[in-house]
Write a structure and sequence with these properties.
This protein has 373 residues and is α/β, with parallel strands linked by helices. It is built from 14 helices and 12 strands.
Length: 373
């Protein structure tokens, strides 16, 4: 790549003279400036975007960093996909320029798609090179990916530029209030007479599932519900998509099988933190001749399409993706303004961590009914 120093050497002038000529600043005669610009064009010089933006101090652009997901996985994801589309539409509504970046953790904690990975570091290029004013980070890099994301975690902990995380706790984050959503779901079931309610979640390493357990536990106490904690309060673990579906179905069969569990011992309702778990419960119930919602009520969680693409349409909690992104964009804007007026050090007296929460929406459809007699 041709640099300013290469042009200076070819022209026999200093690199500051070349910079002044190319930027139209400084004391460079018009004829010298024309010669330098012509030489730069002849040498096919391309100024670095980051350098231009750094001089301007603001880019007017915001970045979205999607962690540990390939493009194919994002297209199938019930979480990343809606967040991405909400980000794009949110930026369009604000006339805000944007950039999207992907980083995938491998077993060494580096990204195979990043230039930094070659030297064993995992750094988002857009923020590091000042191509954006701030960045929203969607994806998890805490305990759930311990050992695989150490390099990224190190970068994040030392980051002084504006960053906001989505559904990952940090100094500046926006979280989906899954605990409040689960409490709504349990309240709905209790109002329909259900007293034996199970909760099926993914790995407890994920903040969403931790909040779900918290909301469920408080609701169980509030409504005086009966819970078989050994079998109904279950962490189904973080596995790949195919393994997860098999494990979800295996668990559903264990708690619903009439040959192994009496009617009085099985749950009359199941609350699931993933639409896949809800589908597994409905499938297992049908295998044993149980009708939803006559014999079993099911509540899921996920995108609208997951709940409505097959029958019965699932009563579900739906994260407010547009609301999550809107709050994150507002927070990024505030943080950029703060950084322009203050030290970026976290020990600055005016540095104030902030957490915002967005409550999911509960939509009733066809899988919740009165508790069976």
């Amino acid at each position: 790549m041709i640099t300013v120093k290469d042009i200076a050497q070819q022209a026999g002038v200093s690199h500051t003279t070349v910079s002044s000529a190319l930027n139209g600043s400084g004391r460079v005669s018009p004829s010298t400036a024309r010669q330098i610009r012509a030489l730069a064009e002849e040498m096919k010089y391309q100024p670095r975007a980051a350098a231009r933006l750094l001089r301007a101090r603001r880019t007017g652009a915001v970045g979205l960093l999607l962690l540990d997901q390939t493009l194919e996985e994002i297209s199938l994801s019930g979480w990343m996909g809606p967040l991405l589309t909400s980000f794009l539409s949110g930026c369009a509504a604000r006339s805000t320029q944007y950039m999207v970046e992907f980083l995938t953790f491998d077993s060494t904690g580096v990204s195979g798609g990043s230039d930094a990975a070659a030297v064993g570091e995992l750094r988002p290029r857009h923020l590091d090179e000042r191509l954006v004013d701030g960045q929203i980070i969607a994806g998890h890099f805490g305990a759930e990916v311990a050992g695989r994301a150490d390099s990224f975690r190190s970068w994040f902990d030392n980051q002084t530029q504006p960053v906001v995380t989505l559904d990952e706790a940090s100094d500046h984050c926006v979280l989906s209030a899954t605990d409040q959503g689960i409490a709504q779901a349990v309240q709905l079931l209790a109002a329909h007479g259900h007293r034996r309610i199970a909760l099926a979640t993914g790995s407890m390493n994920y903040p969403l599932n931790q909040l779900a357990r918290k909301g469920f536990e408080s609701s169980v106490e509030r409504f005086g519900l009966s819970v078989d904690r050994d079998h109904w309060l279950v962490d189904l673990g973080a596995l790949d998509r195919q393994q997860r579906m098999q494990r979800y179905l295996q668990w559903a069969r264990q708690v619903l099988n009439p040959a192994e569990v009496s009617k009085e011992e099985r749950p009359t309702a199941v609350v699931c933190t993933d639409s896949m778990i809800a589908h597994a419960c409905i499938h297992a119930a049908s295998q044993y001749g149980l009708q939803v919602p006559r014999d079993l009520s099911v509540i899921g969680c996920g995108p609208l399409l997951d709940a409505e693409k097959c029958y019965p349409r699932i009563t579900s909690l739906h994260p407010d993706y547009a609301g999550l992104v809107r709050e994150a964009l507002d927070m990024i804007e505030s943080r950029v303004q703060w950084n322009n007026n203050h030290s970026t050090r976290k020990d600055d007296a005016s540095y104030a961590p902030e957490t915002r929460v967005v409550v999911p929406q509960l939509i009733e459809r066809e899988t919740v009914g009165r508790a069976p007699e």
